[in-house]
């Protein structure tokens, strides 16, 4: 036998022995499990983990009721998954057993949610409705992501979130909602409803949400807020930008720190409006219709505010601000004079403004109109644009 052939034969026998010893460590059932695992591992996934299913089973889907008044013909009920089983439409990583990823899969319905789940992601799908009782089994939910779908208010169950007494974050931005879903659980801390078609927020819509810290309602068509924010005792951030508001919301919470109202149609602010919120730090009201006639002398004289954005309004004079203010944006108005009394009621060595950034560009002020005592009053300013 030629030497090359002998060498090849020996190598083949050695490899066969190694493979035999390796495969011999598994019984028939384990071999099959390994093969199923390998096939699942080769699937394409949008996440960097291995999709894992405790047991393969037919997909579970809700049977949505017909739009007509007549009841549909009875159909065989789908085989319900065990409370711990992950639906085939989704991924439940073994290293994060309380999370279920069903996002970006062209789903038109919400699959069964196992009872152990705390974090469920349904975003970036084609879901149009949420059936009553859809989450009755998942009472441990803390995060629920439903953004970037096609959900309309008419197709959301009236008590669909009623049993989620541990829910903290609800994401429903980028849908077709015309009103706030509800009632919402009192445990809620963040509510994301931006980029919808909501036009009004009645006080009852947010009633009882005393744990809510962040409310996102930007890019809607809201023309009235009333006093719907008043009862939100823990609210820190309220984003109402890019709406159709003609007036500011009534009764700000005392806990509020950030208020965003830019890109609305607000033309006036009541006297002492911000005084009820002693923790307020950031106020943004650019791109509105504010005039000096709609402001009192104390409107912005709040010692807590650090940043105030009034750019692109209709102001003709610099409004009076507190000496603690650090950033003031007034560009794009109709201001024609530099009034140092707006920043310092008394100008001396002891009394001065903490202002660091002042923008007055895009107004009618001339550079030589800056008063001589401005450097003394604005001694901390590092940026002044005129």
From TrEMBL:
The keyword Nucleotidyltransferase does not apply. Residues 1-24 form the signal peptide. InterPro entries: Leu-rich_rpt, Leu-rich_rpt_typical-subtyp, LRR_dom_sf, LRRNT, SLRP. Gene3D superfamilies: Ribonuclease Inhibitor (3.80.10.10). GO terms for cellular component: extracellular space. It is found in: Secreted, Extracellular space, Extracellular matrix. Residues 85-119 form the LRRNT domain. Residues 63-82 are annotated as: Disordered. Keywords: Disulfide bond, Extracellular matrix, Glycoprotein, Leucine-rich repeat, Proteoglycan, Repeat, Secreted, Signal. It comes from the Eukaryota. Its main location: secreted. Affects the rate of fibrils formation. May have a primary role in collagen fibrillogenesis. Belongs to the small leucine-rich proteoglycan (SLRP) family. SLRP class II subfamily. Binds to type I and type II collagen. This is Fibromodulin. It comes from Chaetorhynchus papuensis (pygmy drongo). The lineage of its organism: Eukaryota, Metazoa, Chordata, Craniata, Vertebrata.
């Amino acid at each position: 036998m030629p030497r090359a052939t002998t060498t090849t034969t020996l190598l083949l026998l050695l490899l066969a022995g190694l493979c035999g010893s390796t495969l011999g460590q598994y019984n028939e059932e384990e071999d099959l499990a390994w093969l199923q695992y390998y096939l699942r591992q080769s699937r394409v996934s949008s996440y960097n983990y291995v999709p894992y299913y405790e047991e393969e089973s037919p997909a579970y889907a809700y049977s949505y009721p017909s739009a007509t008044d007549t009841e549909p013909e009875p159909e065989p009920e789908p085989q319900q998954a065990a409370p711990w089983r992950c639906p085939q439409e989704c991924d439940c990583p073994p290293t994060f057993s309380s999370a279920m990823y069903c996002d970006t899969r062209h789903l038109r319905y919400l699959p069964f949610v196992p009872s152990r789940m705390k974090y469920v992601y349904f975003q970036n799908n084609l879901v149009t409705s949420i059936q009553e009782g859809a989450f009755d089994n998942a009472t441990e939910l803390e995060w629920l992501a439903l953004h970037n779908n096609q959900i309309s208010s008419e197709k959301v169950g009236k008590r669909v979130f009623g049993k989620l007494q541990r829910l903290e974050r609800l994401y429903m931005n980028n849908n077709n909602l015309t009103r706030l879903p509800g009632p919402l659980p009192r445990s809620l801390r963040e509510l994301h409803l931006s980029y919808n078609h909501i036009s009004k927020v009645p006080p009852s819509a947010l009633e009882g949400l005393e744990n809510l810290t962040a409310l996102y309602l930007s890019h809607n068509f809201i023309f009235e807020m009333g006093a719907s924010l008043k009862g939100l005792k823990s609210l820190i951030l309220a984003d109402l930008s890019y709406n159709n508001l003609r007036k500011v919301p009534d009764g700000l919470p005392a806990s509020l720190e950030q208020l965003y109202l830019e890109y609305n149609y607000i033309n006036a602010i009541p006297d002492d409006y911000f005084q009820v919120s002693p923790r307020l730090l950031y106020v943004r009201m650019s791109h509105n219709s504010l005039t000096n006639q709609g402001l009192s002398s104390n409107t912005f004289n709040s010692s807590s505010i650090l940043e105030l954005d009034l750019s692109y309004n209709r102001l003709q004079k610099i409004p009076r601000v507190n000496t603690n203010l650090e950033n003031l944006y007034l560009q794009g108005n109709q201001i024609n004079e530099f009034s140092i009394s707006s920043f310092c009621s008394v100008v001396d060595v002891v009394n001065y403004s903490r202002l660091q950034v002042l923008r007055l560009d895009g107004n009618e002020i001339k550079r030589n109109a800056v008063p001589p005592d401005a450097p003394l009053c604005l001694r901390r300013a590092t940026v002044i644009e005129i």
